[in-house]
């Protein structure tokens, strides 16, 4: 079940909120844990045990940490990291390792549990932060279970550190203003997913499924542009929905996207894209490897290691590895001095550089094989395609063109600034002076548009279910 579904919006979410807000404070965490397990079991009933095993393992191991970085603590955190990685490697990478690394021509019948990359990283950070003294051990197993299984961020993040919500697991405000603000965020994220990402997904899927040699150059570029906006609004929209639902329930989740396509360098892009993942890799891998403390070459090595693993985190395929290595190489090149030279260029040229680099990278990310990605890239830059005849008119209609234009606009901060500038403050302000809430009118319109779109079309893909 995804957030952008009729079942979630009109059945699961209202029933969950009714049960949550009507329950006494002592039962709220239990209610949330139960509905989170139901949410996960809705699509992964046979793999609920995987998440429960992760919860149990990390909860028990955390109890053995003494907080003094002794041999016992090092052993415990080592077991926790190994156990979490073993779980992730078995379910996500076993076939890839056997086939591509060890040379066995075998495909194991292992299903990838939903959200395993997210809840495994979250569980691992809990134990590591306890070892580092950055969090306090939680002795209530229900609170640890809720931290790992909380349904708003369970499937696709953002990746939440335990110390960010540790206090809120015990006590959190549930106010009308928080509810209203959270629902506004949820609806805005839902609109990004349904009204933008889903619409550009159709031409993106069709163009990437076609033989690139039959496509004109502009058609291939249009497919990559559509995918560029699809993956952003798909994932950023889902993250915004998660943050909004967290706020409705009294939790404060971290920002996950900050308009990455307005960046002027790959370095800046990774400060804005999937922020909770990039900071996770920074804090738990890059810095422990030495970060930039051991000289220039060691820094470059550490960056490449981090981004190769970041690529593989997204999936067990060579395309993801190449995508991660590709971004790592650009980060190294920019650190070598290219970023300083780039900063002296006209600002639009810096943006153009970033967008071309990112779109070329998305081609590897989207294609199933390296060969397919190279064929797409060759056609993008004018090679091959003798007799290519399929033009934009095959994939572009008024709706798609309108949405692409809107996607360009909404990938910048301007619409959010205009929305936040509307004369709306809080529910209490409405009660006090009866001022008209234009934000509320916008939200209602978006709900109606989303509902109409979902009722009219069953096409509702979600990219990050793959990860």
Using the CA coordinates, give the radius of gyration.
23 Å
The proportion of residues in beta strands is under 5%
Number of strands: 0
Helix content: over 70%
End-to-end Cα distance: 15 Å
Question: What's the mean pLDDT score?
Answer: 90
The SS-based structural class is mainly alpha
Main sheet record = none
- Quaternary structure of the protein: single chain
What does the overall shape look like?
A: globular
Strand/helix succession: HHHHHHHHHHHHHHHHHHHH
Per DSSP, the total helix count is: 20
Q: Segments where pLDDT lies below 50 for 5+ residues?
A: 430-436
Q: Which terms would index this structure?
A:
mainly alpha, 467 residues
Structure commentary:
By secondary structure, the protein is mostly helical. About 70% of the residues lie in helices and about 0% in strands. It contains 20 helices and no strands. Helix 3 packs parallel to helix 5. It is globular, with a radius of gyration of 23 Å. About 0% of the residues have low confidence.
């Amino acid at each position: 079940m995804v957030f952008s579904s009729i079942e979630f919006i009109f059945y699961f979410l209202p029933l969950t909120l009714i049960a949550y807000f009507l329950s006494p404070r002592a039962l709220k965490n239990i209610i949330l844990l139960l509905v989170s397990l139901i949410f996960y079991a809705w699509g992964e009933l046979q793999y609920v045990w995987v998440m429960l095993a992760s919860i149990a393992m990390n909860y028990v191991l955390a109890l053995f940490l003494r907080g003094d970085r002794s041999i016992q603590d090092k052993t415990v955190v080592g077991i926790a990291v190994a156990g979490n990685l073993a779980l992730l490697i078995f379910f996500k990478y076993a076939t890839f390792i056997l086939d591509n690394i060890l040379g066995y021509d075998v495909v194991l019948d292992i299903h990838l549990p939903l959200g395993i990359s997210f809840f495994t990283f979250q569980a691992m950070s809990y134990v590591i932060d306890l070892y580092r003294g950055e969090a306090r051990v939680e002795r209530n197993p229900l609170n640890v279970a809720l931290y790992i299984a909380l349904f708003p961020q369970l499937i696709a993040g953002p990746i939440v550190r335990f110390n960010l919500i540790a206090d809120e697991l015990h006590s959190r405000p549930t106010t009308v203003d928080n509810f209203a603000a959270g629902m506004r965020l949820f609806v805005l994220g839902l609109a990004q997913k349904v009204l933008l990402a889903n619409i550009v997904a159709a031409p993106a899927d069709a163009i990437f499924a076609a033989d690139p040699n039959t496509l004109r150059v502009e058609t291939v570029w249009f497919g990559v542009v559509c995918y560029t906006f699809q993956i952003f609004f798909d994932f950023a929209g889902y993250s915004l929905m998660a943050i909004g639902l967290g706020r409705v329930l009294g939790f404060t989740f971290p920002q996950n996207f900050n308009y990455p396509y307005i960046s002027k360098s790959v370095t800046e892009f990774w400060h804005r894209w999937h922020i909770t993942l990039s900071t996770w890799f920074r804090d738990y891998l890059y810095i422990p490897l030495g970060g930039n403390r051991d000289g220039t070459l060691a820094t470059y090595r550490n960056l490449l290691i981090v981004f190769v693993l970041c690529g593989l985190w997204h999936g067990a395929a060579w395309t993801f590895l190449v995508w991660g290595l590709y971004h790592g190489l650009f980060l190294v090149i920019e650190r070598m001095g290219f970023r300083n030279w780039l900063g002296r260029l006209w600002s639009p040229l810096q943006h153009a550089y970033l967008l071309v680099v990112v779109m070329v990278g998305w081609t590897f990310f989207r294609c199933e094989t390296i060969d397919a990605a190279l064929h797409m890239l060759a056609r993008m830059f004018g090679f091959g395609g003798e007799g290519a005849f399929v033009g934009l008119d095959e994939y572009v209609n008024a709706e798609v063109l309108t949405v692409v234009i809107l996607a360009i606009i909404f990938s910048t901060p301007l619409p959010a600034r205009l929305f936040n500038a509307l004369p709306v403050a809080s529910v209490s302000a409405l009660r006090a002076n009866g001022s008209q809430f234009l934000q509320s009118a916008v939200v209602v319109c978006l709900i109606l548009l989303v509902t109409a779109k979902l009722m009219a079309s069953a096409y509702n893909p979600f990219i990050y279910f793959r990860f």
